[in-house]
Amino acid sequence: MLGKVFERFVDHSPISVMVRGTLERVLGADPLDLWYERTARKQYPRDLLFSTIYDLMSQVVFRIQPSVHAAYRAQEAQVGTSVVSVSNKLQEIETHTSAELVRYSARQLKPLIEHVGGAREPWLPGYQVKIVDGNAIEASAHRLKELRGVEAGALPGKSLVVYEPTAGLVSDVFPCEDGHAQERSLFTAVLGTVRTGDLWIADRNFCTREFLCDMDTRGASFVIRQHRGLPFEILSPLHPLGRVETGHIAEQRVRVVDAQGGKHVCRRLRLKLNHATRDGATLLYILTNLPARPVSAIQVARLYQRRWTLETAFQHLEAYFHSEINPLGYPKAALFGFCLA
């Protein structure tokens, strides 16, 4: 029924057929529209289905078309509404919907990855490792008329992104329409997703008293580079513990007191680097509440070094997808394009 061309793909490129079938199962028109009806808070499909908007934007994200307008022109007859309707729909897609699209796809794809044996070796057995980092969408060249005379480009949004290395998936995202907002303003939303057994790995921007202590209270673990603004009390001197590929390690115990007076004891690792970082640092301090047995200081240092896996994921978005669509100056539309990628 599907023809000889399809049969050739089945015979000579079965992986292509499997990937296409998987994507259709999770992100096909019917499941997407059903999901959207359950998820959207304010919008209603009316004459323009969410799956249609998704399809048009996908063509831009996959670099098939250079812009949403070009994608619309190529499918104008099938879309059935004006390009103005498409533009208006994109401008008003809720950030809640964009974020839920990422969560939905991760929930659907994780069991499939496990079923086919695609899960990677755990970074630390017994823990659900999550890497979190921020991503700001670049300033748009196509800006609102009132802003075109302003030299500083308006940033059309930023996000905190959570990557799970075992599944190889971005599993969560916390978008913000204000591209100039502080990342820390989104921390409360992130903390709401922290669960016992998690291991969160992050850079020093996430090293706040609230973030560390709240995670510890919730029974989660962390490996986070120390920010110089964090208040803590030293409980023991530094003890040398050997070296890793990038330098020498020493460790001590410190205590952080939360806003309610609760005391949280952590391990503080000093990594004396063989080579300075790109910002000129030769000493790195890493905080963790992982138990010293069985998780050694060397293991902790190596876990932190692998944080760059998320940076690599961002680079893949840049290289293989059009994840930051410059003409989309409207924050909701720009964030939707990023989340779709």
Explain this structure.
The protein has 341 residues and is of the alpha+beta class. Among the domains are: 94 residues, no CATH class; 97 residues, no CATH class. The protein has 13 helices and 10 strands.
Give descriptors for this structure.
single chain; 341 residues; alpha+beta; 21% strand
Element string (H = helix, E = strand): HHHHHHHHEEEHEHEEEEEEHHH
Largest sheet: 10 strands, mixed
Radius of gyration: 23 Å
Averaged pLDDT, please? 87
Structural class: alpha+beta
Alpha carbon gap, first and last residue: 32 Å
Inertia-based shape: elongated
Fraction in helix: 25-40%
Number of helices: 13
Total beta strands:
10
| Unreliably modeled segments | 140-152
Into which percentage range does the β-strand content fall? 15-25%
Topology readout:
Layout (H helix, E strand, L loop, with lengths): L2 H10 L1 H14 L1 H11 L10 H12 L6 H7 L1 H4 L3 H9 L3 H21 L12 E9 L21 E7 L4 E8 L10 H5 L6 E5 L6 H9 L3 E5 L7 E2 L4 E6 L2 E11 L5 E11 L9 E6 L8 H9 L2 H13 L10 H10 L1
Parallel strand pairs: 1-4, 4-5
Antiparallel strand pairs: 1-2, 2-3, 5-10, 6-8, 7-8, 8-9, 9-10
Helix pairs in contact: 1-2, 2-3, 3-4, 8-13
Compact description:
The chain is α+β, with helices and mostly antiparallel strands and 341 residues long. It contains 13 helices and ten strands.
